[in-house]
Queue: 2 jobs
Job 1
Amino acid sequence: MTTTDPTLAETDPSGDDPDVRRGTGTRGTRIVGIATIVAMGWLVAFGLGFSPEDRDQRESVRLLYVHVPTIWIAYLAFAVTAVASAMYFFGKKKSLGWDRLAGASAEIGTAFVAVTLVIGAMWGRLTWGVFWQWDARLTTTALLFVTYIGYLAVRRLGGTHEQRARRSAVIGMLAVLEIPLVHWSVRLWRSLHQEATVLGTDGDVSIRGLMLFSLFVGVIAFSLLYVWLVMHRTRVMAMEDLLDERGLDDALAARRSEAAENQAANNEKGTR
Amino acid sequence: MEDAGFIIGGYVLTFVTVTFMAWRVLRAGKRLGKQVPDADKYWV
């Protein structure tokens, strides 16, 4: 028998094995995954090909089609972390699903900030002549990165899943407050970094035509990638938590059985 | 293209990073998926 369900096709081509154990892929993740690949292809085509060079920045503007979307999606990822943390912390059900969503989103956001910093350094080398300056925007972005590395480290401390969820929820809700500081740093302090091109306070978008479209393609591509990664990562985390619990249950059962055997042996000695 | 090394290098670095992340999460899903019965997977 052959199946038409692609979710079964990955691990069980026949589709009739009741013991088949599937990974994290589903029809939904495959659709998002394919859309991500297509959008990334468009990003390369428009970012490196169709988009014209900028009057001032010349060819280096092409790096901004990666640099800007990755930091915007990182902001979004950290906002999702904060909301999911609040849902866990203040929610009545205390569902660990919120905690896993918060953790997965923070991991992906942190990776996106790392990409932003590296691509930004390359752009800085071409535009300013240096890879790094202790400028307000660069420094606050680096601080944001370090904060979320700390958040991820706290998630890996010992304790129960509930303890992990509680303490990381507090950090997740506080760390997000850094985002306005990063975004407005170019206005709050004298900065080498340019002001917002799209998300400015005056609402004016100072980028047009194919350049704006290329930036839009970048935002779509990295948004899809974020959704795809979050879907898979939360499922991986759910399985990790389940196996952790089973491991603990097995260890407790073994310990109890060992204690019962010792007790029986002691009783036997006592009766002799 | 001026500064092609930096620009293409930046794109390559980005795609290598995201491909590595994707590969890592898929591999973990596949490995753990073998240890957990489908009945315990809310997405199945």
Job 2
Amino acid sequence: MNPATTATASPRRRGIPARRLLDAISGPHGLDRYLEQISPTFVIGECRAEVTAARQGSEDSVTLALRPNRAWQGHRAGQFIQVAVEIDGVRHNRCYSPASPEGRGRELEITVKRHPGGLVSNFLADHAQPGLVLGLSRADGDFHLPDPRPDSILLIGGGSGITPLMAILRTLCSEGYPGPIALIQYAPDPERAIYREELDRLAAENPNFKLSRSYTRAPGAGELDGHFSPAHLPQADPCFTTAETFACGPPALLDAVRGTWANGLEQQLHVESFLPPSLLPVGEPGTGSIRFAGSDLEVENSGASILEQAERAGVPAQSGCRMGICHTCTCRKLSGTVKNLLTDEVSAAPDEEIQLCISAPLSDLVIDL
Amino acid sequence: MSNTTESQIPLTPAQIESFGEELDAIRRRVLADRGEHDANYIRKVIRAQRGLEVAGRGLLWAGVFPPAWIAGTTALSLSKILDNMEIGHNVMHGQYDWMNDPALSGKQFEWDNACPADQWRHSHNYMHHTHTNIVGKDRDIGYGVLRMSEDQRWRPYYLGNPVYATLLALFFQYGVALHDLEVERLTSGEAKLADKRKLLSGIWKKVRRQTLKDYVIFPALSGPFFLFPLAGNATANLVRNIWSFTIIFCGHFPEGTHEFTEEETENESRGQWYYRQLLGSANLSGSRAFHILAGNLSFQIEHHLFPDLPANRYAEISTEVREICERYGIPYNVGPLGKQFGSVVKKICRLALPGRKDGVASQPPASVTTADGEEQAVPLAV
């Protein structure tokens, strides 16, 4: 059975007769809508995972061990997945990078760092426990360990940005990678350094792995001091000028790293950044732009309802009552912040359904239309 | 006779707007309060439906034994009723879109009914709910085959009103499936069949899938005893048809509900829109189980005021709506199923015959709109 095809199975799909028969008798809801009644992870067309263990990884993070169902296709070290979590009846999607080594194994690990005011990160840190079921997307992203492996590797991580680097490091260590690996970890203090003990252990076990840390609020506690600076590099990694470099962390760190790798070294640098929605910028009505992803069209935001703006741009939007009751114009917002014109409610959640006729943009928007 | 003449409520435009604001306040409060409780509710109903369906199909497979046939047919009938009413109708209204769960997305949901879900969303969510009880616009008034309002001009064809109504009840899912096709506009020459190709092909595909499942595959699985599941499935579809017809017709056609003309609903404000929804709808009283099987359409008034609020909230809202109506002197039409359906049957028979309008049409909103000159559209009004 191939989960990739069952995920997109249509009723007319040609397949083995038994499968077509099951599709016909389980219609119109589909087989998974019955199977999930037996157990939420007992579905074949959707990847879902059960939390098998939750442990506090550092003072402000929790590390979750997940067991995905058979629909899981595996990930490459460094890639991210979207994790769906239901909180008070509402499904929220957030990106996390698995920290487990790459492959199709049925064991997956993510580490969630608390963001002040962050709905999902705090929920998971406080309430995730064995048995909780999460939805998973397929792994995605170009930020991953290349094939064939480069000759030497430098990893730079800040905060929860350590997680994809952990996947890379664990993969390299488990496959006996012979080249030099250097890791610079930035954290406020040792208590908040994610994966601190495991990194120490890996450094002790693998002579080709050099670990350096800088504790920005605890000077003197690590091998380096302060925020990222080019001066850290020669000390942390003797081959930094030639190493394939992977950096993940907050925007300020990545900006500094990009600046340093600007002079002809860009080819060697790979960066990845995620921002929780609570930290996304919220603008004024009438600023930014709207991108209609399906029509490949971008317009300046006029401040009117998204439906009006779509129609003016010639995007084929369905509509009905135009007063927020019939849901004909409901559409998926891929990213951006919108305001509900009826309730004044502001929402920045990625990948959620909104009613175009009563929603106005408050930031750059991407709409699946 | 209709009590419409007594209910020409002398509400000033200011009163209508404050009435609308009170209803908006209820809506805002429930929107803010939606959460796990509502999610658990709909999932519990879905679990019950899936369980009843699997049990029903399983028992009918062994339907050669009479107790299994009776239990199986009962379970499958209940399953289809839950699927169409409390789950399908309500989910497709977008009542659970806020959960952001693809399986409960109003735009993607498909139901166990001959009518394709996307056509239903157009004819019901948009046409019927926006233009409720406006003769000439709301095609739920008689489904294009019945005379349900004095405002529909009588023709000899309508002598068959009770017969057509009976047939519609028995084959209701197919009536609903053909709804968006606007058959009466085809026969009158207003619309051409060629323009309806896409709708027809959608209906054909859905009807074929449903027929294959209920009348070919499941019976075939019972081998030589195929007649038992076949009869059980047909009975379950019939029970669901009659039940949903009864509930739906009790929503807008008992004595005391109003119809409106296109002119009197032009430039409606939000308050006036609420007012029309209220006068055009009627509730059914009953037990909690009755309301669930009715898909909470027994709270038709609350459903029409707030079509996209989770239906499990209508019961609690109804006491407030009723209190507001009493304060404004607006009639709140509610009665037990027997009484309401009796009056619908009477209306179907009465309107089979030509009748003068006796001034029983629908003046109330008109008297409101024209009571004071300065009335104009509120943002987001139709």
